[in-house]
Specification:
The chain has helices at residues 33-39, 109-114, 134-142, 146-164, 169-183, 190-196, 201-211, 216-234, 249-260; strands spanning 12-15, 25-31, 45-49, 56-60, 65-69, 72-76, 82-84, 90-94, 100-105, 125-127. With 268 residues, it is of the alpha+beta class.
């Protein structure tokens, strides 16, 4: 299975966070072993995921799986839970009994909630017990349902967030810049975003590199490619590259290759 091209989301249950955390956490999710086995036709399968620069926690509730990131391959057992930044293409090799609970943060969200900067996770797969208490992970893994797991983690995140309360100015500038870029159909370049945020291009570059770990130009190009490719897959006939800030289809195709490592012709 390939993210965006295949409807991977249908094997998951999703829940948005509470209002206090909605600026920092995109969603909680959990795959269904039954839906996964059916979707994969009871065979081993892979899930290929493209860069997003969004810190993501994976808590393993099922069988072992392998994770390929760059030139490295990791074997993760039932007790291995991980945090990854998803700053590059990663691929998960699964058995039909795959069962994963996920928490996906927005860029800068991990720092706002837990006080942990995401730049230290670039090109790394980190054991989740380095970030979350072992006792909490045990409670989450032994809870009876998706809802109970979500509540356990959300309550912990709320508690930690209330202790931070420093309202980091840099994190909010980054978030507001991303929102501005998305709200204007991804037509602005970095200088135009900076101008509308009343900061200099040098400043916005420093903020993004310190908070996200990537320049605004790089992050915006990934965000645009994700949104545009999703729209293209959903309806090729109605798709217009100009609606997503691309000059023409050739420009869009080139960016898809940069983003996914493959051309659209491979998916036809």
């Amino acid at each position: 299975m390939v993210e965006i091209f295949d409807d991977i989301r249908k094997i998951y249950s999703f829940s948005a966070p509470c209002p206090e955390l909605e600026d920092y956490i995109e969603f909680f999710s959990e795959s269904s072993s039954e839906e996964t086995a059916s979707f994969a036709n009871n065979k081993c399968f892979t899930v290929k995921m493209f860069p997003s620069w969004t810190p993501t926690m994976w808590i393993n509730l099922g069988t072992p799986y392998q994770l390929v990131a760059g030139n490295s391959c990791y074997t993760l057992g039932t007790s291995n839970d991980v945090l990854l930044l998803r700053d590059a293409i990663v691929e998960r090799l699964n058995l039909p009994s795959d069962h994963i609970f996920s928490v996906k943060f927005f860029p800068g969200g991990l720092e706002a909630v837990l006080g942990i900067g995401q730049t230290k996770f670039i090109s790394r797969i980190v054991a989740l017990n380095e970030v979350l208490p072992a006792a909490l992970l045990h409670q989450v893994k032994t809870a009876a349902s998706f809802e109970q797991r979500m509540v356990l983690l959300q309550n912990f995140f709320l508690q930690q967030y209330s202790r931070q309360r420093k309202q980091d100015h840099y994190i909010h500038i980054v978030k507001d810049s991303i929102d501005l870029y998305a709200a204007n159909r991804m037509q602005y370049n970095t200088s135009e975003v900076a101008e509308r945020m009343f900061i200099t291009s040098k400043t916005i570059n420093r903020y993004f590199n310190n908070i996200v770990g990537a320049s605004p130009k790089k992050y915006f190009s990934i965000l645009r490619a994700r949104v545009a490719l999703t729209a293209y897959v959903a309806g090729k006939e109605a798709f217009s590259p100009c609606d997503h800030g691309y000059h023409d289809m050739s420009h869009f195709y080139k960016e898809v290759v940069n983003f996914t490592g493959q051309g659209l012709a491979v998916q036809r």
